[in-house]
Each structure stands twice: as C-alpha cells, then as structure tokens.
Amino acid sequence: MFAGLFLQPAAAQEQLPSKPESGIARQPGGLSRADSPSADDQLNRILARQRGENALEPVLRTAPEAGSAGGADPHSAATIAGQLGSGLSYPDAYRAIRYGTEDVRTTAHTPAAGVLIQTGGMEWLKVRRGPLREWGGYLLIGVIGILALFFLIRGRIRIRAGKAGRTILRFTFIERFAHWLLAGSFVLLALSGLFMLFGRSYLMDVMGKEAYSAGVTATKWVHNNVSWAFMLGLVMVLLFWVWHNIPSRTDWQWIKAGGGIIGKGHPHSKKFNAGQKVVFWVTILLGASVSLTGLALLFPFEMPMFAKTFQAIDWTGIPGLFGWHLPTQLAPQEEQQLAQLWHSIVAFGMMAVILAHIYIGTIGMEGAFDAMGTGQVDINWAREHHDLWVAKREAEAARRGAPDGAVAPAE
C-alpha cells in the first residue's frame, strides 16, 4: 500500500474522504481516530511484537463481529483494487526500494534520506537482543564466578614477609589521576551501557515506564559525555606507561612461574609484570577501538569506518582464501549498526579483563590497592612483586648518596 501511495499519489488521493464526518476523520473499516488505541496501548503492542507475541490478539477477541451492532459492514469494504489505488501492488517497486536499486529522490538531502526500507535493521535488532546480550551476559557472569571460585580456593595473596612499615613511592599524583580518570569513566560507561542494553527487557517493568524513560535518557547523556573523559584518560595512561609496558624476557619467566599467584614463589619483575602489561595493552587497544566506534556513533555521517575497513581487509586477499567477500558499499544505517555491535562486543571484552584487574587490585592481593590509593606501597610488598624495579630505585638512591640507602621516589 505504501508503494501505491508513493508511486500513484493521484490515484491514492481519490480514495481519501473529502470531508470528515462530525469533525472526526474516519479510518479504513469505519473506525474513527477517537477509536484509535492510546499511546500506552500502542507501546504495549510494539513491546508485545518484539517479544514475539501476537499483539493484535486482544483486539481481535474484543472486536465486534462483522455485521453486528457497532461492527463494520462487510458490504461497504473497499475492493482490493480500490485499496491499492490502481489494482497493482508494485512488488517490483517494493523490492527495488528494499535492495537499493530504485532511483529514489527526496526533498531532504541528508546521507540517509534516500534509504526508505532498511532490512538490515531487523537483523541488527535480532543480534542485539539475542547473541550479543546472551553471550555478553554469560561472559561477565562467568568471569565473576571464576574469580569468586579462585578466591575461595586461593584466598587473598598476603605479603609473605609481613609489612615492613616503610614505603616506597610507586605512582605520582598525576599518574594516579590519569588512572582514576580512566577507571572512573570506564565504570560509568560500562554501567550506563549495560543499562541501555538490558534495561528495557529486565528493568522497565520493575521501574515503570516513566521512571525507566527518565533513567535511560539520563544514562544516554552520561554515556555520551563521560566518553570524552575516558578518551583523555586513555591518552594520558598511554603516554605515562607505554615505555614500561614493552614486553621483555623477564615477562616470559614471570608467565612460566604463574606470576606468583598460582605457585608459592614470586618471579622477578620490573615496574610492571607480564600480567599488568596484558591489562595495559588490552586497555589501550580495545579502548582505542571502542573510542573510534563511539565517535562514529556520536557523529554518524562524519566517520564511516566499516566500508573502508572491509575494503582494506579484502585488499589483503585473506577473506578470499576462505571464499568470503566483505561488503564495501554500506548505507549510513548499516555503518551505524555495525559500529554499535562492534562497540558493544569490544566493551564486553574490556569489562571481562577489567573485572580481573579490579579483583587483584582490591580483595585479591594485600597491599596492591595502596599503589593507586596513596601512591605509597610497603617495601616488602614491592620487593616480592617488583623486585627488579625496587633494586633499580635503591641503586639510584645510593648513587645520589641518600642517607641509609633511602629509597628514591618512583619514576
């Protein structure tokens, strides 16, 4: 019917009533706008359809039978030809519009104005409501479960020699500021993202529609604006610590020894051990990826990424080895859908890694939180977990002639 109205406006207009009855426009089938469902009813029907339910079943059960009092007169129903305007359904036109082969012209000149039907939106919705939420949720629950089980078995990692009562400066104020700027913004982004992804299905009925609407609006504002703090913190952390996180032979020895977490001994380590380097590079690389897709979502028509990315990947010839051909022509809506999915997938991966990082830095290891709390860590803790770094600091202090071999501040 849409195609008939779009392609045959004159014929379609002939079917419209010339004058509403009693000041109320009549709808097809004899229903007036006053009989139309309310906004709440329409919302409930939309939600029911998304749940796979028959949204019209309650309406059909309560609708009056044809020919009965108050019911529609079957003899007054318009013919099929009359409903379609000219008797043609224009399936070819529908198909051309759907697959982008129709020469569509619009008065608006925005990048997405010419896309009238975008079938990929339903595929995106299915992935977002299905595998993305399910697998992402299972990942986070699984990581939390593993960490809880590990804590029950291993317990908290204690300082074997006990606290010495003497500390060494591990991180300066500006380093801790960068860390907490990145960490705090990430927590807000993670919570707000999870709220937007899961809230409609699991929280709206609990909170109520109005409260949920206000909450998701505020959450979206927080998510969009806190992202700038996250990107700033990411750049600061990269500049401060990239040189200390370059892999070395010491890291392989640390990995073979289980990092001192599984076994009883503590392998040698510099300022950052292999585990911390993994967290660093995961944060930097995935953080950069989630930032780029976030910018593409904030500026949808300014930063199309995936068509160019797919073109570059296809150029390598690797997809062709498996018989794959990535799409290199994408509509603006498709760019947004791919950006949103990749944004969420990468964010789930980051959340899984950061959960383990939070565990070790808080309840998992004694003395670890002090590094980012006050910046000062107990010297025995530092010698057990970062002995090579402590030895370097003490040697530098001795060369400067510090009294009693005092420990020099960290870099």
Automatic annotation (TrEMBL):
What biological process terms from GO does the record include? anaerobic respiration; formate oxidation; respiratory electron transport chain
What's one GO-annotated cellular component? formate dehydrogenase complex
> Which stretches are annotated as coiled coil?
none
Kindly name one Pfam family recorded for this protein: Ni_hydr_CYTB
Protein name, UniProt field: Formate dehydrogenase subunit gamma
Places the protein is found: Cell membrane
Q: How does it sit in the membrane?
A: Multi-pass membrane protein
What UniProt keywords are attached to this protein's entry? Cell membrane, Electron transport, Heme, Iron, Membrane, Metal-binding, Transmembrane, Transmembrane helix, Transport
Source species: Acuticoccus sediminis
Q: Which cofactor does it need?
A: heme
Region named Disordered? 8-40
Q: Name one GO molecular function term.
A: formate dehydrogenase (quinone) activity
Q: Which residues form the Cytochrome b561 bacterial/Ni-hydrogenase domain?
A: 170-375
User: Which family is annotated?
Assistant: Belongs to the formate dehydrogenase gamma subunit family.
Q: Which residues cross the membrane?
A: 135-157, 177-198, 226-246, 278-299, 341-360
Predominant localisation class = membrane
